[in-house]
């Protein structure tokens, strides 16, 4: 039995299979085009593309110099999206992101307000070093990321479709930064940790980026085609056993639900939005790997990027030197 079983399961499944076969070539072209520019970050590229295929936003966390910004710029080109960048700084104001109203005066002397769109009106918004802006400015993205529209002076303005926020964050420099509030973090479908490349990948980086000629990404799809792929992802069937695995994992990460690990080490755990993130991301990951339906292995593989920013450790766990990843690893092993 599958979730949201259609009226004609066999015909619907055949249609999904046909669409998935075409989608595989598109996804392969995306990976190849990004791979011409970004080296040694295969898992990062996979997680970010899975996030976009699932229709969500991603928070990229890593030390400086790991090509986080370059990856976002490359994805905008490859996916054919209208991309804009905002460099977050302590003096950045909400109007610098959303836009503002200005007073115009006509030739006859009549005055009226005109709204000037801010950079949030893009299909791919890069929020660079998002934790450098004040909480007031960070909150300007809350409505946009969840409801896909913004409200200025009581007027609603719809955002382009698709709309994705890819934010970067430096985990080292704390001076002059503001922690992202829990409500903001929960808007991100996944937190993608960008790590150092291995030796061979770093060798490729040296050879490919320090000469006269450098490879550049090329557009391989369009915004309309991306929306079709996102609709396909949402139509993919998910078995009851996989749904049970998602619910078991998410609920086990909440203190008070009977899990000894959570009760001992977790201060607060993920809400239902984490379960929704799993449902969409495991489908996207299955399609990314050429499968028609997700498995429990997809739940295990995405447990860390989906959960780590949606839970917090208590004082006892921090005192013992336990990390969120350690706790998630223990909970992940408990999935049947």
TrEMBL record:
Domain (ChlI/MoxR AAA lid) ranges: 262-328
**Carries keyword Cell inner membrane?**
no
Residues of the ATPase AAA-3 domain: 57-190
Give the SUPFAM superfamilies listed for this entry.
P-loop containing nucleoside triphosphate hydrolases
The record's Pfam families line, in alphabetical order, gives: AAA_3 (PF07726), AAA_lid_2 (PF17863)
Q: Sorted alphabetically, which keywords does the UniProt record give?
A: ATP-binding, Nucleotide-binding
Entry superkingdom: Bacteria
Q: Does the record's keyword annotation contain DNA-binding?
A: no
Gene3D superfamilies from the UniProt entry: Magnesium chelatase subunit I, C-Terminal domain, P-loop containing nucleotide triphosphate hydrolases
CDD domains per record: AAA (cd00009)
Protein name as it appears in the record: MoxR family ATPase
- The protein's organism comes out as Aureimonas fodinaquatilis
């Amino acid at each position: 039995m599958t979730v949201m079983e259609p009226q004609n399961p066999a015909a619907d499944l055949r249609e999904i299979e046909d669409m998935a076969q075409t989608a595989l070539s598109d996804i392969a072209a995306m990976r190849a085009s990004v791979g011409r520019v970004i080296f040694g970050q295969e898992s990062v590229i996979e997680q970010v593309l899975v996030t976009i295929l699932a229709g969500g936003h991603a928070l990229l966390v890593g030390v400086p110099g790991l090509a986080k910004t370059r990856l976002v710029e490359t994805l905008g080109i490859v996916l054919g999206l209208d991309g804009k960048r905002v460099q977050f700084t302590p003096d950045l104001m909400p109007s610098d992101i959303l836009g503002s109203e200005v007073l115009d005066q006509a030739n006859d002397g009549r005055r009226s307000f005109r709204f000037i769109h801010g950079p949030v009106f893009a299909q791919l918004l890069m929020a660079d070093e998002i934790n450098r802006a004040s909480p007031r400015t960070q909150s300007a993205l809350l409505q946009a990321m969840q409801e896909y529209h913004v409200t200025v002076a009581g007027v609603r303005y719809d955002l382009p479709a698709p709309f994705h926020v890819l934010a970067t964050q430096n985990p080292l420099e704390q001076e002059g930064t503001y922690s992202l509030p829990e409500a903001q973090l929960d808007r991100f479908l996944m937190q993608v940790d960008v790590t150092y490349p291995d030796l061979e990948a770093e060798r490729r980086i040296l050879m490919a980026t320090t000469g006269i000629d450098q490879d550049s990404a090329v557009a391989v799809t369009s915004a309309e085609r991306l929306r079709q792929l996102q609709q396909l992802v949402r139509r993919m069937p998910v078995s009851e056993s996989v749904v049970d695995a998602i619910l078991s994992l998410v609920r086990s990460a909440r203190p008070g639900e009977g899990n000894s690990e959570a009760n001992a080490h977790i201060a607060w755990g993920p809400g239902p939005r984490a379960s929704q993130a799993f449902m969409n991301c495991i489908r996207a990951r299955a399609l990314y790997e050429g499968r028609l339906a997700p498995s429990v292995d997809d739940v295990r593989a995405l447990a860390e990027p989906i959960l780590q920013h949606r839970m917090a450790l208590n004082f006892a766990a921090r005192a013992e030197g336990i990390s969120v990843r350690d706790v998630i690893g223990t909970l992940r092993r408990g999935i049947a």
